[in-house]
Amino acid sequence: MGKLLRPNREVGIAGYGAYVPMYRIKAEEIERVWEVSDPPIQEKSVPGLDEDAITIGIEAARNALKRAQIDPKLIRAVWFGTESKPYAVKPSGTVVAAAIGATPDVNAADFEFACKAGTEAIQAAIGFVGSGMADYAMAIGADTSQGRPGDHLEFTASAGGAAYILAPKSSETVAYFEASYSYVTDTPDFWRRQHEHYPRHGNRFTGEPAYFHQILSAAKTLMEELNYSPGDFDYAVFHQPNVKFPLTVAEILGIPREKVLPGLLSGIIGNTYSGATLVGVSAVLDIAKPGDRILWVSFGSGAGSDAFSLVVQDAIEEKRDLAPRTMDYVNRKKYLDYALYAKHRGKYIM
């Protein structure tokens, strides 16, 4: 038995959609307040006062429905991946399902695995549809991530998300999954205990033992099992806590920068955590041509990675403009100073 995860029937993406809040704060503004040098990004997104992970998920889900062009009642699962749930005890998936008109004949649940909660939901949706239990399942990754004031994470922790409606592969799907693979270890690189508002990170674990080990292991195994080389992929999207890490992964794997840059958005919207790779892939689908192959590798602290090989289909040409493109949201900006940013994020600095 091979290492790859493959369903009984081929699964594709019927519709996808992203959402990024319009508010931004420049890294130089955070740098000015905290006198921290060498910021890892240029600027990041900030949720509005009336936005949270659920509202972001709803906007993304509605965009996915516009492209899928299906009755929401046909969706039999709404799975929501996030690490910034508005409620400690109350599912976010039920709120999204109700907002898009998918209730009551639907399975709803929230997924958690740090920044790869969204791709965990994708994996589950592939299995749900691929087994024949359902013809449509929705997977969402969205976050309004947290960073302690003055901490290095405050430069990157941002807001955004994307939603994908999975269906049996057909002429109506915009892309299909060739295979996927998950790689997981117990690595204490980043965590937040219950009742703690901000996460903590074990610095010596965050790079080589966590991010790089998981992503490289997942990517290499997927390619080896498929008998592919980096040259077989037209685009690559890696989890993007910053700009440097995914570009380093690409260099190690032998993937040219130009294949990574279209989906590398963290430099201008920050790290959207569970939404990071999902938003990146949505940006690539907005410009990809039929036949293009996308390498998609997420990462979640704790730690693990999900890797996918995704092939773009003809239907992308007619469906991509049925909803706003990802860069439409990225380019829509309103800048905040640090005081307004702190108000938006509910930061109380003692």
From TrEMBL:
Residues 224-304 form the Beta-ketoacyl-[acyl-carrier-protein] synthase III C-terminal domain. Keywords: Acyltransferase, Isoprene biosynthesis, Transferase. InterPro entries: ACP_syn_III_C, HMG_CoA_Synthase, Thiolase-like. GO terms for biological process: farnesyl diphosphate biosynthetic process, mevalonate pathway; isopentenyl diphosphate biosynthetic process, mevalonate pathway. GO terms for molecular function: acetyl-CoA C-acetyltransferase activity; hydroxymethylglutaryl-CoA synthase activity. It catalyses: acetoacetyl-CoA + acetyl-CoA + H2O = (3S)-3-hydroxy-3-methylglutaryl-CoA + CoA + H(+). The keyword Membrane does not apply. (3S)-3-hydroxy-3-methylglutaryl-CoA binds at residues 36, 115, 156, 206, 239, 271, 301. It comes from the Archaea. It is an enzyme of class 2 (transferase). Gene3D superfamilies: 3.40.47.10. Its EC number is 2.3.3.10. Pathway: Metabolic intermediate biosynthesis; (R)-mevalonate biosynthesis; (R)-mevalonate from acetyl-CoA: step 2/3. It holds the Pfam family ACP_syn_III_C. Catalyzes the condensation of acetyl-CoA with acetoacetyl-CoA to form 3-hydroxy-3-methylglutaryl-CoA (HMG-CoA). Functions in the mevalonate (MVA) pathway leading to isopentenyl diphosphate (IPP), a key precursor for the biosynthesis of isoprenoid compounds that are building blocks of archaeal membrane lipids. Belongs to the thiolase-like superfamily. Archaeal HMG-CoA synthase family. Interacts with acetoacetyl-CoA thiolase that catalyzes the precedent step in the pathway and with a DUF35 protein. The acetoacetyl-CoA thiolase/HMG-CoA synthase complex channels the intermediate via a fused CoA-binding site, which allows for efficient coupling of the endergonic thiolase reaction with the exergonic HMGCS reaction. This is Hydroxymethylglutaryl-CoA synthase. It comes from Thermococcus waiotapuensis. The lineage of its organism: Archaea, Methanobacteriati, Methanobacteriota, Thermococci, Thermococcales.
